[in-house]
Amino acid sequence: MCIVFDQEEETDYTSGPSRFVNAFDGVAEVSALLMTLDFSRKVQAALQAQRAYEKADRRAMNKLDSLLRYESKIKCEITDYEYRISLLEPSDGSQATDEGRDGVVDQEKEQSLRRELEVLRQMLDDSKTQYEVLKYGLQGQADTLRQVQAEANAYLEAAFVHAHLLPPHDDATDIPVADLDIQEDYKKYASQTMAEVGEDAGLVVPLDTSRDHMYVPPPSDEEQAQQALKEAFWTARQQLQDARYVFDRWQGIREMELHEHKAAVAVGQPTVDSDRDAFDARWLQEVPRLTRQVIDAEEVVAETKAAALAAGINIATPDAASGFIDDVDDGYALSFEQELIVSAPVEKIYHWFDVMENVPRASVSELPEVPHIDDWNFRPVENSDSISMVFLGDERRRIDKWHVHRAGPLCRSASVASEGDSRRRAAKRRLLHMGVCEVGISGLPLLADDQRIFDRFWRFDEGPLLLVGAPISELL
After folding, report:
1. Around 73, how many Cα atoms within 13 Å sit in the side-chain half-sphere?
2. What's the rounded Cα separation, in Å, for the pair 107 and 103?
3. Cβ contact 287:293 at 8 Å
C-alpha cells in the first residue's frame, strides 16, 4: 500500500540496516526496501545535486558558445592588424608596400596599430581566463555530484517523487547570456591600457573593423570579355575531344550494342531496335552523325580560337602541333622531308653547281622589287583541320602523290653568289641541307616570296640568293 509523508521523521523508517523484506500489497506477497532516515536524506541530496549540475551545465554551454564567437572575432581582428602592420614594414631591405611607400615608413601609424594590437591580445587572454573559470566551476559541481551519487543511486528518484519525499523536477528558465560587444570591450581595455601609460583615456578611437584594404576590385569589361573568350575556347575544345572520343570508338560501341541486342533477343527481353535490319539502319545513320558532330566541333574550335587571337589572347594547348612563333608552317607535307633527303642525286646537283658557276650573277640592285610568284591554289592543312588528313602509311602516301601530280613540273632552282671554291662547296652543302634542291626535284613549287626562306638564304652565306626559273632537266 502506497503512503504519503506530511513530515519526515526518524520513526517512519527502520532502525536497522536497509534491506529488502517481504511485504503484502493487499493482493499478494511482494518485496519491499527498508530505509533509514540517513539513507533517505542521502538520496534526496544526490537528486538535488543532479538537478543543480544539469542546470549549471546548460548555462556553461551557452556561455562557452558566446565565448567562442567572441574569441573568433578578436582573433580575426588580430590577424587583420598583423597584416596591416606587415604592410608598413620593408622586406629584405626593399621598399615597403603601397601603404608604407613615399620614402619612409609611417612610424606614427605603425605604433598606433601596435598599441591597438596589444589591446586586442589582452582581450583575447581575458576571454581565455573566463573560459578557465567557467570550466573549473562546472568541474567542481561535477565532483560534488559524483560524491553524493556514490552514496545514493539515481534510480530511486521515481520512488521518492511518487512518495512526495522529493518535489518534481523544476525546469527553471535558463539565465540568458548577453552577447559580448567587441567594440565596448575594446574601449574598456584600451582605456585601461592608456591610463596605465598616463594617456588620456577619453581619446580612445573605436576599433577599426573595416575590410577596405582587403577589397579586390571586380574585373573590368575587357577582362570579363577575355575570360569569356577563353572559356568558350576551352568548352569547345572539350566538346571536340568528347566527339572525337566517340567517333574513334564507334566500331567498338556498335559491336557492344549488337552483342546486347542479340543477348536480349535470345532471352525475350525488349530491345532498342525491332530487329537486325533496324539496328543496321540506325547505325548507317549514326556514323555520318558522329562524323558531322566532329566536323561541327572542329569548326567551333576554329571560330573560338580565331576570336581569341583577334582579341590578343594567345591560347597555348598542351598538344599543339603547329602555330609556334619560331616554327611556322613551311607549306609542304611533313612526310616528304625524310624521303627527299635520302633520294637526292647529290653528284648531279654538284655538277649543276659547277655548270652554274660561269653563269652571270645578278647584283642586288638588279633584283626585281616584286619577285615572281607561281600560281598555286594549294591551301595548307594543319593536323587539327581534318581527321582525313592525318592518315599514315599507304593512305598518307596516296595523298602526297596526289599533291605532287597536281603541282605539275614547275620547280625552282637557285644560284648563290660566292667567292672561292671552298665557299662555293660550303654553299652547296648548306643549300642541299635546307632541302631547296630536294623540293625542286620532287616537282613541288617553291614560293619565291616566302620571306622566311628568303631571309635564311640571304644570311647563310652573307650574300643574296637569286631564285631563277630552271627546267628540271638541268638538275638531273
Report:
1. 18
2. 12
3. no
Amino acid identity of residue 380, one-letter, is P
DSSP state of 367: S
The pLDDT tens digits of the residues spanning 435-472 come to 444 333 333 333 333 333 434 333 333 333 333 333 33
Which residue, chain included where needed, has cell 617553291? 446
Main-chain dihedrals φ then ψ at residue 197, nearest 5 degrees: -95, 5
List, in sequence order, every residue forming a beta bridge with 465; answer none if it has no partner: 416
pLDDT in tens, 43-72: 788 888 888 888 888 888 888 888 888 888
* Owner of C-alpha cell 544539469: 54
> CA of 328: how far to CAs of 319, 322, 404, 447, 452, in Å?
16, 7, 22, 15, 9
Poorest-pLDDT segment among 15-29, 112-126, 401-415: 401-415
Q: What is the pLDDT of residue 292?
A: 94
Residue in this structure with the C-alpha cell 599543339, named with its chain if needed:
320
Q: Assign residue 102 a region (left: φ > 0; alpha: ψ between -120 and 50; beta: otherwise).
A: left
| Integer Cα distance of 467 and 472 in angstroms | 14
Which H or E run includes 378? none
**Residue 101 pLDDT:** 47
Best CA proximity match to 249, nearest among 239, 257, 260: 257
Residue 147: which of 18, 46, 35, 43 has the closest Cα?
A: 46
- How far is Cα 179 from Cα 318, in angstroms, rounded to an integer? 56
0.70 cut: is pTM over it?
A: no
Which burial class, exposed, middle or buried, applies to 336 when counting CB atoms under 10 A from its CB (0-12, 13-18, 19+)?
middle
Rounded to the nearest 5 percent, the helix, strand and coil shares of the chain are: 60, 5, 35
Torsion of CA 284, 290, 296, 300, to 10 degrees: 170
